[in-house]
Amino acid sequence: MTDYAKQLTDLLLRGDEQAAISYIDGVLAGNDRLTLYEDLLTPAMIRIGELWEQNEITVADEHLATAVCDYVISDYEYRSSSDDAPDRKKVMLFGVEGEEHYIGLKMAAAVFQEFGWRVRYLGPNLPLRHAETAVNAWQPDVVAMSAALSYRLPILRKSVQVLANTDCRPSIVIGGRMAPHASFTEEAAPGQVLVMPNLRELHEWLAAEGKGASVKHVLS
Hints:
Blueprint: H1 3-14, H2 17-27, H3 33-53, H4 59-80, E1 90-95, H5 103-114, E2 118-121, H6 128-138, E3 142-146, H7 153-164, E4 171-175, E5 193-195, H8 199-210, H9 215-219
Helix pairs in contact: 1-2, 1-3, 1-4, 3-4, 4-5, 5-8, 6-7
C-alpha cells in the first residue's frame, strides 16, 4: 500500500468527508478516475477490511469508512460528469443475493459511464428472481456481478447460469475478491463470462471495445 492510500485510510476511518475530498484533489493530477479507484480507494478499503478482521477497528468504524468512501465516489462523479459521450451499450450491475459489499460495484459503474455506456446500478444483495426480472425488462448487453466472500460462490454460479440464459443472452462480467478463484464453464456458453479481477483490466477492456471490437468478440 502506498503512503497516499495509507493517509486516505486514516481519513476514511476518521469520518472526515471534506478532508478526504481535499486530500484526493491534492493527490490526483486532474481527472484521473482510474488512479482514484484502483490505487487509492481500493487499497484503502481493503486495508480497512483487514483491520476489521483483525479486531483492530469496530463494525461501526468499518461502516463509517464505507459511508465516507461512498460519499467521496458520489462527489467525484458529480464533479466529473459529462454528457459528451453518446450512450450506446447497456450494462446492469449489482451484488448477488446476500452480498452486502458494494463500493467496488459503484466504482465499476462509474468506469462504464466514463466510456459512454448506459448504466443501471442496482446495488448490493439483489435477490436472483428480481435480477432476472430486471434483465428481461431492460435487456442489457452486459450484466456485471460481484462477490467478495467464498460462501457467495454457489449463488454467484446460480446467478450466472440463470442470467446468461435470459432472452437477451447478455455477456457476464464477474468482479469482487472471489473473481480470480471462480470458473463458470458449466454455467454459461463458452466466452460468455469474463472474470474481471480489478478496475484497471475493466478500463482496458472497455477502451478496446470502444475502438470497434464488439462485446461478444472481446468476451469470446
